[in-house]
Amino acid sequence: MGQAKVKAHGARVALALLLVVALGVPGAGAISFWSEKKEEPEVSREEGGGTAERPRVALPDFTVLAEKLGPAVVNISTTSKATAFGSSESPFGPEDPFHEFWKRFEPFFGPFPPRPVPQKSLGSGFLINRDGYILTNNHVIEDAEEITVRLNDETEYAARIVGRDPKTDIAVIRIEGNFDIEPVVMGDSDALKVGEWVMAIGNPFGLDHTVTVGIVSAKGRFIGQGSYDNFIQTDAAINPGNSGGPLINLEGKVVGINTAIFSRTGGNIGIGFAIPINLAKDILPDLIEKGKVTRGWLGVLIQKVTPDIAESLGLEEPRGALVADVLEGPAREAGIKVGDVIVEFDGHAIRESSDLPLLVARTRPGKKVKVKVIRDGKPRTLEVTIAEMKEEEVEVATTETEDIGLTVQTLTPDLAESLGIERTLKGVLVTGVEPGSPADRAGLRRADVILEVDREPVEDADTFRKVLRAKKTQKSILLWVRRGENTIFLALKPKR
Q1: In 3-state terms, what secondary structure has residue 304?
Q2: How far apart are CA 20 and CA 27, in angstroms?
């Protein structure tokens, strides 16, 4: 073969290779990149057979979202009430690096007097309109005496609290000044799907405008923060300082407010929680107009329907909210009774007991709603006129205590009677004990009634939780328990 022919042949081979790469010739190995997922070809079911390749799926490009939404995310720093520190180490507080030096003077001058030191904290938030209203977490600005908001361009503004709601951990603050920033667009958190891509923007550990991405790991998470838990779980990195920042979907809309992390170290381990934005949208008008939230009230104490309870009530499956007590109010007037299982409220199915408080709270006071219950194994529909909730009214009877593996509820007169004990007895009924937990090791059992914690009477589940939290650092906590006709003392050790 002559030199000219060799060159012509080489050119033809090179051209063929380029065509293979560009066109993906059948039978040739196609080139794919790290951001693409190449599926195996599948046999077509159409006439003639053959093969059909699925389309390549590329990872989403978050750069446009970060560039567009970044300016609307703000850094929030607060200064709260001063706290007096013990002064045996330094006149400048425990953070003083020279405290060892100052201790040398104590024999001559005695301990230094306490010095109040203001407490500072950092968080995030995002602009929801051009009037300077910012959505954040209540715990970011709670008890703050001064609030400073820093924008993406490093300008700072003093902010004031417009409204806050501790029950949902949502707050609105406002800044006033000359700024031209496109506010965020709030999306539909109910339409979120598990596995969907999301992006978080915030100020973790004070590092401004940090962007992290991940997926929606789960929805409707109950993490024991209150009656209105309904968190979005995500593996997008969320750390201290991210609180109050937005969780954003691929459409560039905010679907959640980053709020909490599950961590044994204080840092991200891939489990973060965000408040659904639809919950915030429901209460925003009240927060802006009144500074607080007006909620609906049904007037029942409820508990979870366990498989054992479902079997004893003749239910096909464990679902709904079991009515443990009926208070003086709308539910009693409508004919709801202890032992009813609420399975539908205002057209919404109740799968878990935690679904009901959210639905009731979001209902306008004065509205008439239909409530479907299962009573004696038969469905029944009642009409209830929802009242306004007062601060002292509690909707959920069941309380899961942290770290000790115990679930309790307030002992009502009807529950006491069903257990064969006097109706006047005050305490909390043990409804669940986790195997191997501190509660289990202490000897607690279901149907025990806890009367005292370290000789302090506990008359309801809320008091029990507060007392237990105050004593959680103790090595041992003494419980006085009613079991059947007898009373016994048990020693609970919160930590091994």
Answers
A1: strand
A2: 10
SS3 338: coil
Q: 297-340, pLDDT tens digit by residue?
A: 999 888 888 887 888 788 888 999 988 878 889 999 999 998 89
Tell me the C-alpha to C-alpha distance, in Å, between residue 268 and each of 30, 111, 204, 205, 257: 39, 40, 10, 11, 16
Catalytic entry in 80, 139, 263, 346 = 139
Q: How far apart are CA 136 and CA 235, in angstroms?
A: 20
pLDDT in tens, 444-469: 988 889 998 887 888 888 788 888 87
Q: List the catalytic residue out of 165, 169, 235, 325.
A: 169
Q: Does residue 124 have an active-site annotation?
A: no
CA distances from 307 to 240, 324, 445 (A): 38, 16, 18
Catalytic pick among 243, 354, 355, 460 = 243
Location of structure tokens 């009530």: 313
Cβ count within 10 A of residue 278: 18
Spell out the residues 6+ positions from residue 77 whose beta carbon is closer than 8 angstroms to its own.
120, 121, 122, 123, 147, 148, 150
Q: Encode 145-189 in three state secondary structure.
A: EEEEEECCCCCEEEEEEEEEECCCCEEEEEECCCCCCCCCEECCH
- Both tokens assigned to 227: 């009656």
C-alpha distances in Å from residue 16, one per residue of 22, 23, 437: 10, 10, 69
Q: Is 348 tagged catalytic?
A: no
* Whether residue 243 lies in the annotated active site: yes
